[in-house]
Amino acid sequence: MSLRTPEANASEPPLDCPCPPQGLVEVVGKKWALCVVTLLGKHGPQRFGTLQRSLPGVSPATLTSTLRQLSLEGILSTVPVLRDRRAHGSYGLTPKGVELYRSLLPFSRWLRS
Predict the structure, then answer these.
(1) For residues 22 and 62, is the Cβ–Cβ distance under 8 A?
(2) Looking at domain 22-112, does it have CATH number 1.10.10.10?
(3) Residue 37 CB burial class (10 angstroms; 0-12, 13-18, ≥19)
(4) Rg of the chain in Å (alpha carbons)
(5) For the packed helices 60-72 and 33-43, what is the interaxial angle rounded to 10 degrees?
(6) How many Cα atoms sit within 13 Å of 72 on the Cβ side?
């Protein structure tokens, strides 16, 4: 087996990195982001208070920041939900968020195995 030095590889083209875009990792790599995506994917649109009660240990400021970042990335949006004849603002997944949620399901099954 021959060991190649970096100088020997200088003439070879760089490899295409299959890593996800760095910005996405910065958002969904946050502690609560995937939890929010999973909750909304499984249970549909939810109000802020319900999300906070469902995520023990998350502070309101952290949850607000997480929701804001996910919104900026186009993963979730606020959606009106009618309850008691009044519209309430809730958070729901966008089509991009649903796609992310579905892509997490095999990973989730793998973690449980």
Answers:
(1) no
(2) yes
(3) buried
(4) 20
(5) 80
(6) 12
What's the pTM value of the predicted model, to 2 decimals? Answer: 0.73
Segment 51-110, tens digit of pLDDT: 999 999 999 999 999 999 999 989 999 987 676 666 667 999 999 999 999 988 888 888
| Six token digits for residue 86 | 């009044």
Which residues does 41 contact at the CB level (< 8 Å), separation at least 6? 93, 97, 98, 101, 102, 104
Amino acid identity for residue 37 in this structure = V
Contact 33, 66 (CB under 8 A): yes
Say if residues 90 and 46 touch (Cβ distance below 8 Å).
yes
What is the domain partition of the chain in residue ranges?
22-112
